[in-house]
């Protein structure tokens, strides 16, 4: 079975722009979570979706939004990009929340 | 609030045993997980403890003491490939997301 996939792998954007990151979970996993990981830190929770409904939201501004589609894939959108949004964005799918399966991540650089 | 504390760096010799500690303060507690992340890679699940005691999976073991809000990851027979960052993570209830610590960077030297 394929693991969690994310696209794109790398992205360079300018301040003020908008970005959309995509994630496909492992087949059969209905829960998708998004994390932001800054260099030298642990992943920080952004959103969790289960069966297309938002189950949780971390301490991130409203510029961050997400959704989950009927096939359980998910998108993370970030508006009005700031330099501080530069990070590795990780998507994880799971059957049980304590065992998350992470994708390879999208490295976002905001200049 | 929630906080997890783990050492930032640990260095150990190949073939040795190393213990990475994690203490946590959370409003609720449902379990402690451990993840490994190699440079440039994604975190991968290692172990989970919901109850007090030791869980063993091959060379890796994880321990939890709920009364002490403390856990550790034990790596035996260290190999060079074990050089990576190790994160402890907690969840407050069955449906809440994981909260990760800042990670411990383990360097295995010859």
Describe this structure in words.
The complex is a heterodimer of chains A (111) and B (110). Chain A is mainly beta. In chain A, 0% of the residues lie in helices and 51% in strands. In chain A, strands 2, 4, 5, 6, 9, 10 and 11 form a 7-stranded mixed beta sheet that branches. In chain A, strands 1-3-8-7 form a 4-stranded antiparallel beta sheet, with no helix packed on it. In chain A, 37% of the residues are buried. Chain B has 110 residues and is mainly β. Chain B has no helices and 11 strands. Chain B has strands at 3-5, 9-13, 18-25, 31-37, 44-49, 53-57, 60-65, 70-75, 84-91, 99-100, 104-109. The mean pLDDT of chain B is 93. Chain A binds chain B through residues 33, 35, 40-45, 48, 50, 55-56, 58, 90, 97-105, and chain B through 30-31, 33, 35, 41-45, 48, 50, 87, 89, 91, 94-103.
Quick structural overview:
The complex is a heterodimer of chains A (111) and B (110). Chain A has 111 residues and is mainly β. Chain A has strands at residues 5-7, 10-13, 19-24, 31-37, 44-50, 53-57, 64-68, 74-78, 87-94, 101-102, 106-110.
Strand content of chain B: over 45%
| Biggest sheet descriptor of chain B | 6 strands, mixed
Q: Strand tally of chain B, please?
A: 11
Name the helix and strand elements of chain B from N-terminus to C-terminus, one letter apiece. Answer: EEEEEEEEEEE
Number of strands of chain A: 11
- Return the string of H and E elements of chain A: EEEEEEEEEEE
The separation of the N and C termini of chain A measures 37 Å
Oligomer: heterodimer
Give the tags.
heterodimer; A: 111 residues; mainly beta; 4-stranded antiparallel β-sheet; 0% helix; B: 110 residues; globular
Secondary-structure blueprint:
The complex is a heterodimer of chains A (111) and B (110).
Chain A lengths: L4 E3 L2 E4 L5 E6 L6 E7 L6 E7 L2 E5 L6 E5 L5 E5 L8 E8 L6 E2 L3 E5 L1
Parallel strand pairs in A: 2-11
Antiparallel strand pairs in A: 1-3, 3-8, 4-5, 4-9, 5-6, 7-8, 9-10, 9-11
Chain B lengths: L2 E3 L3 E5 L4 E8 L5 E7 L6 E6 L3 E5 L2 E6 L4 E6 L8 E8 L7 E2 L3 E6 L1
Parallel strand pairs in B: 2-11
Antiparallel strand pairs in B: 1-3, 3-8, 4-5, 4-9, 6-7, 7-8, 9-10, 9-11
